[in-house]
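Duplicate of #3305? Posting structure anyway:
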């Protein structure tokens, strides 16, 4: 241990170890609160190690090395005044949990027999932990009498500091090794994808050690006045407004999207502080801008490893909520906080590269590094086949309760799961499918502006199709339909599992005597219906998709039920991602989350009608019988849900309650709000909630 007497000497809160070599005064402190790179190297050298040891995850299996790393981490922590630690894990169905994570913070303080104190952190402390596994959503995999939950460090995601605690990213499993978290299955899927990539590429003459999935997440959110937020029970309890009349102005003028952020306003100060806190944690939160709806904004980081990026996004969401409160704002992460204006998503930009750096979705790079121009169309055939074969799982992965109100609503892609490839790629794969095998070399298109003094813009091969749920462009796919509240682990677990399965199937057929090209051509002929380059918002597209056999699941509840379809259970099981029991448990957990969400929303609606709308109406001399009837209808509907035992049947009833009964009751309440004098309406209105930059509107 280290004596507490040295803590004051070691505490250097303004360490400049993360400075940029080009402009140290502009980037002081970057990365100083994350144990990696130059920051870690200084402390590891004192133990005879270097930061390179952290790049090889095998250190977690060497007790002596783990002890040395723990000593280095302890010295680093004390130099920053940090005296607590925790294993930081990701319980399932954590939508309403602050930070979407779990932790038990433990003091590093130890008392000696003589009454003196030391600080202690050993390898065993950072490697493993234990907690209750029964009190988190577990789908029956744990019970009070079988409650053990076990934590182990995730060495692929760096330890970091917040306030006075060290956070150790961790996986969380049951006594029998069942995954109780979001992170463990993502690791399993990622490893399966890596192994199957190496297997397939070896068959095609390209020896690689494995592959890595990289993602970039575009986080949309709302910042609203805190005073108004605190006068809305529904926003505080559920993250969305279940009542509220649209104001005279919404997003009609498209004037909010990428408009200047008021440099003198609270939101800009808040966003700057969020970025500063993220920079200290080594989170490259590069982009900030206004989004389409009033009070809606976006942050986006650089691309990175799917494991680390997922962890960092959870940190970003927590920081956004906490910093917003400091600036008299509330941060809303829910997918649809307000009716009548756009909701929020989290675009999951997704790509794969080999460990040697060959980009699977970059045709020029993959061909140059592999020497095989046939490899790229084989990869694309696998992905097209995956979208067609497992579109139901892709839809399941985005079935967050808030996405009920977004998908297909001219603000997010529809519930039809297809992929956009662009004209050039589509034409190339059609040629390839029909036997004309050649190297894909996409061309750029010059766009002259008609002004001699301006440069010519070179447009890429693909346009940007914002109506497709899974468009290709810029050497990546973008899963655009992901919900803003979501932990994206399940999303990427599905994508990586899907790729692993398709690569495995192709390898099986190659090993049985078929050629890779012939297999890819057959897959494209069978699955090319999943390619759609048109307008996904076209009202006729869903019916056309149905006729073609393209996946369409309008109901998130029905999508969740696909977790236990035999083909999906087989896929997950064969890739070592989920056991049949884990599939069934997660189906149960997601259904219970949906039901619980609707229970909270309808409870808020009933209370807000009885405690606010009816008294306001009576004070204004407005007939309140319609309000009273609406509250009773909601109460009767939720009572019917409670009288039903099966989780799937409960969820189906809740969906009708939410999208039909509550919508109809809301219209009655909103009409009363429109007729009620403003001074008598006791709930914060959309006028007060949606225009933080333009003053107060009562």
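Output from current build:
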């Amino acid at each position: 241990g280290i004596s507490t007497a040295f803590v004051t000497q070691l505490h250097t809160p303004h360490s400049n170890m993360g400075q940029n070599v080009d402009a140290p005064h502009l980037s002081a402190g970057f990365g100083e609160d994350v144990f990696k790179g130059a920051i870690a190297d200084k402390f590891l050298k004192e133990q005879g190690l270097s930061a390179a040891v952290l790049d090889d995850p095998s250190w977690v299996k060497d007790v002596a090395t783990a002890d040395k790393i723990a000593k280095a981490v302890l010295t680093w922590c004390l130099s920053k005044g940090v005296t607590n630690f925790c294993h930081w894990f990701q319980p399932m169905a954590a939508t309403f949990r602050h930070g979407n994570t779990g932790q038990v913070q433990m003091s590093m303080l130890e008392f000696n027999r003589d009454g003196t104190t030391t600080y202690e952190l050993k390898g065993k402390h950072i490697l493993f932990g234990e907690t209750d596994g029964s009190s988190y959503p577990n789908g029956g995999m744990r019970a009070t009498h079988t409650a053990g939950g076990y934590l182990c460090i995730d060495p692929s995601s760096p330890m970091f500091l917040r306030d006075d605690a060290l956070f150790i990213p961790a996986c969380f499993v049951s006594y029998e090794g069942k995954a109780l978290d979001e992170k463990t299955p993502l690791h399993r899927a990622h490893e399966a994808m890596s192994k199957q990539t190496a297997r397939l590429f070896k068959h095609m003459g390209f020896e690689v050690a494995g592959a890595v999935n990289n993602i970039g997440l575009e986080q949309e959110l709302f910042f609203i006045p805190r005073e108004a937020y605190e006068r809305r029970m529904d926003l505080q309890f559920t993250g969305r407004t279940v009542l509220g009349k649209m104001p005279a102005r919404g997003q009609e003028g498209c004037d909010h999207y990428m408009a200047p952020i008021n440099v003198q306003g609270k939101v800009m100060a808040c966003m700057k502080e969020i970025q500063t806190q993220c920079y200290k944690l080594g989170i490259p939160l590069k982009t900030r801008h206004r989004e389409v709806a009033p009070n809606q904004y976006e942050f986006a980081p650089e691309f990175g490893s799917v494991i680390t990026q997922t962890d960092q996004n959870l940190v970003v969401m927590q920081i956004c909520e906490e910093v917003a409160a400091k600036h008299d704002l509330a941060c809303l992460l829910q997918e649809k906080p307000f009716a009548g204006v756009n909701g929020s998503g989290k675009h999951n930009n997704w790509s794969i590269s080999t460990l040697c750096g060959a980009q699977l979705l970059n045709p020029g790079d993959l061909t140059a590094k592999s020497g095989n121009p046939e490899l790229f169309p084989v990869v694309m055939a696998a992905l097209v086949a995956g979208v067609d074969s497992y579109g139901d799982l892709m839809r399941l992965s985005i079935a967050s309760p808030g996405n009920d109100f977004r998908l297909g609503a001219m603000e997010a892609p529809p519930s039809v799961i297809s992929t956009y490839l662009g004209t050039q790629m589509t034409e190339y794969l059609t040629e390839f499918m029909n036997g004309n095998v050649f190297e894909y070399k996409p061309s750029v298109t010059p766009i002259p502006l008609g002004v001699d003094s301006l440069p010519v813009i070179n447009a890429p091969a693909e346009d940007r199709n914002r109506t497709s749920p899974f468009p290709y462009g810029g050497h990546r796919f973008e899963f655009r339909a992901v919900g803003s509240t979501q932990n994206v682990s399940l999303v990427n677990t599905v994508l990586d599992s899907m790729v692993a399965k398709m690569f495995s199937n192709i390898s099986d057929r190659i090993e049985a005597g078929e050629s890779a090209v012939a297999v890819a051509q057959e897959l494209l002929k069978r699955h090319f219906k999943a390619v759609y380059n048109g307008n996904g918002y076209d009202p006729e597209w869903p019916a056309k998709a149905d006729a073609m056999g393209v996946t369409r699941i309008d109901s998130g509840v029905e999508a969740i039920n696909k977790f236990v379809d035999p083909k999906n259970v087989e896929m997950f099981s064969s890739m070592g991602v989920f056991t049949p029991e884990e599939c069934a448990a997660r189906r149960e957990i997601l259904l219970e989350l949906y039901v619980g969400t609707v229970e909270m929303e309808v409870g808020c609606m009933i209370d807000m009608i009885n405690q606010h709308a009816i008294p306001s109406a009576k004070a204004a001399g407005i007939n309140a019988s319609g309000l009273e009837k609406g509250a009773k209808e909601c109460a009767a509907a939720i009572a019917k849900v409670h009288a039903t035992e099966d989780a799937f049947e409960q969820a189906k009833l809740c969906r009708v309650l939410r999208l039909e009964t509550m919508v109809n009751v809301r219209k009655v309440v909103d009409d009363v709000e429109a007729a009620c004098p403003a001074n008598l309406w006791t709930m914060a209105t959309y006028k007060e909630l949606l225009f933080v930059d333009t003053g107060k509107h009562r």
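Confirmed duplicate; merging threads. Residues 3-17 have pLDDT under 50 and may be disordered. The CA atoms of residues 377 and 429 lie 7 Å apart.
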